[in-house]
């Protein structure tokens, strides 16, 4: 176990170093060199002759393309009552999106539309290449009441041997004779743990989860959160659990009667941006510009964040950088096309779009460097 943990940490550090060097900025190069020196000092553990313990996580069987799901202008009504309309979403590989909002705005219905259990009244949606969909239903409608726990899992995965099936069930706190309980006798938390165990074994690369922490005890929540931390696929989760969202999400989408709003970051970031939107503009009485004041406040807030929160924000910033880099490359390819300036107006619009994208990318690089520097200080 210690060898595996060390190898995972080495791989993580090497990936961070590669990202630092890719940005090719003075701060990031110094940070890369600092991490490389620390990595060289690690006493490497010998690989064990055999490792019998199997570690379960939300591992995807295969990778998706960059675009995982594109939904445009989805709408849904029941008996003449509008749930939502003009809902659009672009999920990219690696996104961890939390869908929040009051009851009754259609969050669960939206998930059911995405997994094919309901149809939208209007709009379009398209999944990308190699997408395998997994769905966690908070009501566990897919479980069979008359089966016992062991066979509920084993019937779905008949190629697994008994020890491995029992090992998975033990991870979700089903041990000994617990595995022979009938599904209809289980509590809500037990049914939830069993549904999560089945989802883990499917190895899908796009997970839709509806209130996954409902009815789960603290131990089960930690199992779920750690599994999602290691997941290299894409996640869209409906949740009211602030702690879960802070641990897992890098984007928050809020649905309400007024419409849909999107926020980069976790739940705390969402709250901060909501509060900022309600505050009146401060008078410039301290000699600082509004931009300078905002940057100072951001640094003070980031300094208070935990290492875990900073790591999540770094990952979110890196995902946004990758997306913007792709946008810049696409615009540059369009600008280089032979017919790009046949229509001068279109050519100017293309140039302006490219300039805005580059400006956004530079700001993202600065934000990432700031986050990475603070993370380095906490290391």
Automatic annotation (TrEMBL):
Supply the InterPro entries for this chain: AAA+_ATPase, ABC_tran_C, ABC_tran_Xtn, ABC_transporter-like_ATP-bd, ABCF_ATPase, P-loop_NTPase, Val-tRNA_synth_C_sf
Q: Which Pfam families match?
A: ABC_tran, ABC_tran_CTD, ABC_tran_Xtn
Which residues, by range, are in coiled-coil regions? 293-334
Answer yes or no on keyword Transferase: no
A molecular-function term among this protein's GO annotations? ATP binding
Q: Which UniProt keywords apply?
A: ATP-binding, Coiled coil, Nucleotide-binding
- Report if keyword Protein biosynthesis is assigned: no
Report the protein name in the record. ABC-F family ATP-binding cassette domain-containing protein
Q: Which residues form the ABC transporter domain?
A: 69-283
Signal peptide region: none
CDD domains linked to this entry: ABCF_EF-3
């Amino acid at each position: 176990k210690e060898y595996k943990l060390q190898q995972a940490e080495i791989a993580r550090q090497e990936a961070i170093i590669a990202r630092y060097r890719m940005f090719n900025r003075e701060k990031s190069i110094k940070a890369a060199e600092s991490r490389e020196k620390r990595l060289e000092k690690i006493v490497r553990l010998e690989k064990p002759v055999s490792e019998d313990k199997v570690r379960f996580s939300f591992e995807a069987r295969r990778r998706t393309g960059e675009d995982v799901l594109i939904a445009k202008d989805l709408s849904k009504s029941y008996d003449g009552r509008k749930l939502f309309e003009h809902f659009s979403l672009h999920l990219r590989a690696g996104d961890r999106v939390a869908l929040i909002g009051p009851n009754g705005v259609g969050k669960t219905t939206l998930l059911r539309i995405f997994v094919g259990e309901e149809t939208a009244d209007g709009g379009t949606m398209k999944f990308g290449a190699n997408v395998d969909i997994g769905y966690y239903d908070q009501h566990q409608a897919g479980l069979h009441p008359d089966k016992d726990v062991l066979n509920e899992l084993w019937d779905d995965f008949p190629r697994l041997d008994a020890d491995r099936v029992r090992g998975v069930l033990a991870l979700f706190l089903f041990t000994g004779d617990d595995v022979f309980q009938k599904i209809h006798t289980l509590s809500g938390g037990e049914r939830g743990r069993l549904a999560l165990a089945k989802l883990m074994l499917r190895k899908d690369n796009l997970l839709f989860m509806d209130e996954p922490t409902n009815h789960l005890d603290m131990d089960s929540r930690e199992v779920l959160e750690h599994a999602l931390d290691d997941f290299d696929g894409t996640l869209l989760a409906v949740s009211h659990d602030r702690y879960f969202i802070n641990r897992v999400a890098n984007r928050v989408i809020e649905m309400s009667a007024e419409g849909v709003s999107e926020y980069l970051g976790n739940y705390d970031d969402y709250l901060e941006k909501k509060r900022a939107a309600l505050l009146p503009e401060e008078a410039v009485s301290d000699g600082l510009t509004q931009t300078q004041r905002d940057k100072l406040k951001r640094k003070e807030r980031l300094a208070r964040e935990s290492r875990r929160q900073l790591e999540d924000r770094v990952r979110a910033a890196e995902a946004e950088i990758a997306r913007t880099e792709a946008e810049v490359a696409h615009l540059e390819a369009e600008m280089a096309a032979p017919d790009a300036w046949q229509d001068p107006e279109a050519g100017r619009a293309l140039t302006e779009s490219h300039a805005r994208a580059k400006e956004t990318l530079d700001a993202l690089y600065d934000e990432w460097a700031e986050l990475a520097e603070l993370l380095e200080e906490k290391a």
